[in-house]
């Protein structure tokens, strides 16, 4: 009879108050740097089988800790307790820091990030500060800045001066769904000052808006392999720099196939992957929407799409994700519109789009509206969707010999297939808005932020090309960008209303002043050479998360807001 080898598991007993907790010693040492040091030969008591825990820890929380060490995880316990009572996972987070269990810290941070809410985020933020957890601090700060108007006012007023300034003084602060953002913020500041009997610098009310970078995703492979490493590059006005890299979530990689027609969109510090088919005609669709956090570098399952789609429009309008048209099962062309509210986690049906498409058409978001251009029609149309009214407006446009491009605040990159050196060119001091890289490797950008003296030209050109509608003020100012070899005098760039962008009339090449910047590591852009059009999207860089709207916010000598007499009384 063959002898069966049995493996003995060495256990230790941890004494908390009067209760004994037995635990696998090897697992405890491997997962906790605290106990690894305690059981090392550096301590005289390292051979003892019992150790007293001299900390005030709730017994249920310490049991959660023991369960996680012994069983590798206690996912169900953490998720259930989070929904029922936030205190339990937060105590477990403190224990992970106390006993230096890094994997448990990361795991609970992941759970907290996935379930952050306006009611709890400030408490979690303050605890993360106490524990020195920088990633969790940044996650909470980003959440607070994005959903500031939803935060409980009573908790805002309890913040320390330093933390209050980190919020209201941050350039990335969003004041959503209020009529007058500056007045609203002033009321918040006045309320905090009254409660805390303190003063706040006046400069915090001067907001420049969040710093957003036009960004693009690419890889060094020409295929659509799900195993590729992807690069995110951002344009900062002077250079196209690499922000970070990522790979698809495991759920997609495990399909072991290419995915076609999946769309990437972005909002704030997050990427969103939606839709796509694992091989055209296979009938196997990705119905999940995945979120990638640039702060924590983690993937999260955001939600499940109401219907299967590929090659659809995926665009954000404020805090809602619009999925428009595309192709469904059996290659059926879809006109349906699904609207996902990020903050509520709910889906709504929108009014059907008036066009069908099998490749993603040119589109952009402006003034809370989604604008789609059907430039392949005999007479070009722009379809304008107002999500607040759930209405589509159709704008008829006159055809022009130069290509019609309608991607304001996005960049379009066309790369030559036979060139391996990539050079981009742009006008000095002009806001980069679109890149057209053709065989000449030249780019002509002529969109700027402020050309008020051209207002009359704007009105004249838009009236001539698109007409006016003074009654309902729905006139959409679209624009043309000439091709690189067609810079004639009558080429015109037409921009949008309210002087957000202005118009420039191109007189010829001799009047264009531009210089070139070589793009580093062009192999990382190889995937783009197989697409005639690639859209840039807007991302926020986590490095700018703590940027303030005013200097020296913590100084004691500065201009202050004084309490309103009505509030003092």
TrEMBL record:
Matches recorded under InterPro entries:
BTB/POZ_dom, Kelch-BTB_domain-containing, Kelch-typ_b-propeller, SKP1/BTB/POZ_sf
Q: Has UniProt tagged this entry with the keyword tRNA-binding?
A: no
Give UniProt keywords alphabetically.
Answer: Kelch repeat, Repeat
Q: Which SUPFAM superfamilies match?
A: Kelch motif (SSF117281), POZ domain (SSF54695)
For whether the record's keyword set contains Thylakoid, the answer is: no
List, for all copies, the residue spans of the domain called BTB: 10-73
Q: Which PANTHER family match?
A: KELCH REPEAT AND BTB DOMAIN-CONTAINING PROTEIN 13, KELCH REPEAT AND BTB DOMAIN-CONTAINING PROTEIN 13-RELATED
Query: What is this protein's record name?
Result: BTB domain-containing protein
């Amino acid at each position: 009879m063959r002898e069966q080898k049995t493996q003995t598991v060495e256990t230790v007993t941890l004494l908390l108050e009067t209760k004994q907790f037995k635990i696998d010693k090897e697992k405890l040492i491997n997962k906790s740097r605290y106990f690894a040091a305690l059981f090392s030969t550096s301590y005289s008591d390292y051979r003892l089988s019992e150790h007293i825990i001299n900390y005030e820890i709730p017994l249920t929380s310490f049991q959660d800790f023991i369960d996680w060490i012994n069983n590798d995880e206690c996912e169900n316990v953490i998720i259930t307790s989070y929904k029922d009572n936030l205190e339990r996972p937060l105590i477990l987070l403190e224990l992970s820091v106390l006993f230096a269990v890094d994997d448990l810290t990361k795991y609970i941070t992941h759970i907290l990030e996935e379930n952050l809410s306006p009611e709890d985020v400030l408490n979690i933020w303050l605890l993360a500060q106490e524990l020195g957890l920088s990633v969790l601090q940044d996650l909470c700060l980003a959440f607070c800045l994005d959903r500031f108007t939803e935060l409980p006012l009573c908790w805002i007023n309890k913040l320390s001066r330093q933390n209050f300034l980190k919020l209201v003084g941050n350039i990335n602060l969003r004041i959503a769904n209020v009529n007058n953002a500056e007045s609203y913020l002033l009321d918040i500041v006045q309320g905090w000052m009254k409660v805390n009997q303190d003063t706040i610098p006046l400069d915090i009310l001067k907001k420049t808006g969040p710093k957003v970078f036009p960004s693009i995703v690419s890889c060094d492979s020409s295929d659509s392999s799900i195993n590729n490493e992807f690069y995110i590059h951002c344009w900062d006005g002077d250079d196209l720099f690499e922000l970070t890299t990522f790979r698809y979530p495991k759920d997609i990689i495990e399909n072991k196939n290419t995915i076609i027609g999946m769309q990437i969109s972005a909002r704030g510090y997050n990427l969103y992957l939606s839709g796509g088919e694992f091989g055209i005609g296979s009938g196997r669709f990705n119905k999940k929407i995945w979120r990638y956090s640039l702060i924590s570098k983690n993937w999260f399952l955001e939600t499940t799409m109401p219907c299967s789609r590929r090659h659809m429009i995926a665009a954000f309008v404020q805090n809602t994700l619009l999925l428009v048209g595309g192709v469904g099962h059996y290659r059926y062309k879809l006109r349906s519109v699904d609207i996902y509210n990020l903050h509520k986690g709910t889906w709504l049906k929108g009014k059907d789009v008036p066009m069908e498409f099998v490749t993603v058409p040119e589109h952009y978001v402006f003034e809370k509206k989604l604008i789609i251009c059907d430039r392949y029609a005999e007479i070009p149309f722009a379809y304008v969707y107002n999500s607040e009214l759930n209405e589509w407006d159709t704008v008829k446009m006159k055809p022009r010999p130069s290509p019609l491009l309608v991607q304001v605040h996005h960049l379009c990159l066309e790369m030559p297939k036979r060139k391996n050196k990539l050079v981009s060119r742009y006008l000095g001091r002009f806001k980069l808005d679109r890149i057209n890289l053709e065989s000449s490797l030249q780019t002509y950008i002529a969109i700027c932020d402020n050309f008020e003296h051209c207002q009359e030209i704007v009105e004249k050109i838009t009236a001539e090309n698109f007409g006016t509608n003074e009654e309902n003020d729905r006139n959409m100012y679209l624009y043309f960008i000439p091709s690189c070899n067609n810079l004639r005098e009558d080429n015109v760039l037409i921009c949008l209303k309210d002087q957000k962008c202005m118009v420039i009339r191109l007189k010829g090449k001799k009047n264009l002043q531009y210089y070139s910047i070589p793009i580093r590591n062009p192999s990382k852009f190889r995937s783009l050479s197989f697409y005639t059009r690639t859209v840039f999207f807007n991302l926020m860089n986590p490095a700018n998360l703590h940027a303030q709207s005013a200097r020296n916010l913590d100084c004691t000598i500065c201009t202050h807001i004084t309490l309103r007499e009505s509030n003092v009384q």
